[in-house]
Amino acid sequence: MTHNIPSQAQLDAHWMPFSANREFKADPRLLVAADGAYYTDSDGRKIFDGLSGLWTCGLGHNVPEIREAVSQQLGTLDLSPSFQFGQAKSFELAEKISQLMPQGLNRVFFSNSGSEAVETALKIARGYWAIQGKPHKTKFIGRQKGYHGVNFGGISVGGIGANRALFGETLSVDHLGHTILPENKFTKGLPKVGAHLADELLDLIALHDAGTIAAVIVEPMAGSAGVLPPPQGYLARLREICDQHQILLIFDEVICAFGRIGANTAAEAFGVKPDIMTIAKQLTNGAIPMGATVAKQEIYEAFMAQDKPHYMLELPHGYTYSGHPVACAAALASLEVLQRDQLVQRVDELSGYFADLVHDLKQCPNIEDIRSCGFAAGFSLSHYPGEPARRPYEVAMAMWKKGFYVRYGADTVQLGIPFITEKSEMDSLMNALAEAFNECA
Ligand SMILES: Cc1ncc(COP(=O)(O)O)c(C=O)c1O
Predict the structure, then answer these.
(1) How far apart are the first and last CA of the chain?
(2) Stretch 179-206: mean pLDDT
(3) pLDDT band at residue 3 using 50, 70 and 90 as cut-offs
(4) Is 2 within the bounds of a domain?
(5) What does the alpha-carbon distance between residue 359 and residue 369 come to, in Å, rounded to a whole number?
(6) From the CA of 117, how far away is ligand 1's center (Å)?
(7) Of 222, 213, 267, the residue nearest 241 (C-alpha)
(8) 289 lines ligand 1 (CB under 6 A)
(9) Is the same domain home to 72 and 55?
(10) 290 lines ligand 1 (CB under 6 A)
(11) Domain that holds residue 34
(12) What is the pTM of this model?
């Protein structure tokens, strides 16, 4: 098979996202096809998808049900205006999503990405307080190492310095400290120590006054920073403090929702219910972009109860492609396969096997810490002097040569394997990783 390799002019024309453009374009890594848990690259090699795309394709690639639903939808209703008119699938999907959420989180606002889901959540939170007669509750509390996408709201509440440094002034936010503690190194699942870190929120409330704070936003399990499961009791304590001080709690479940940690949501897995949740990636299995923000019913009802003529908007916010019919078709098919094939349960059942393998790599060179939860794992690697991101890059390139795609970011290597991964595939992945860690010592 011959594949279309982009010319230099074509490579130059595309300014790639979150990529080292110069490095990539000097020696492009091109994918040409995908099926199940594997990509095919432009040399015809099979590449195991160790991050499910970008935490998106838990069901594997080329799922026939999604393909057919998308194709049928394109031939039936390719687009309907999302403002003031509707199409049945967005309502069907909204109900379906609310059935998979913790009880009471049942009002779904559609967008096209995790970043947009986050912006929507932040705007709903501020708007909610404004219509409650508390317009000064506008400040947000994020957390160090948090990732909430790339829009201005998201980078404001986000806690990854490199993603903010170039862009000047952000929203008015403050940050909790991250939850990495030396005593929790090499923990499988939720670390034992660290619930007390949630009490930092009390200090921030003392500093800013709860009357100025709209919401706290955290990833229940931080993904992009290298898989950081929350310490036991930490999220419950955040919930308690938010309740005591009338602050909304937002869970950014863009990575967690729909199976990644062996439950429908992290809220369900960890037994803590937020007021607002953001979801995206696994919603359509990555086939068509889609995000959503799920609010508690009473938040929606507060907007509906505003004293306005019935033909006026309750929330002046939305995207041309909110609830796009093709994305809805993909999401409905994807959630159906997820449930039919009991993949959430599968992740839960096999997560112990996966965690054991991951943590067996502790003895490899330069491993500073390993964390795991569900089908996600993060390895922190020791730094070259002044170059924290170099070793993970080298490991990921060694893995690519061996036929495995893994994510590298900051000083971590990350795994987010497809929910359909067989034990033997996990074994091969870990053998390759052990080799790569040794080669990059
Ligand atoms: C927790 C979290 N929130 C938001 C986002 C942003 O999503 P997107 O890249 O679809 O805008 C991501 C992406 O990785 C994420 O992990």
Answers:
(1) 37
(2) 97
(3) low
(4) no
(5) 9
(6) 9
(7) 213
(8) no
(9) no
(10) no
(11) 8-59+341-439
(12) 0.98
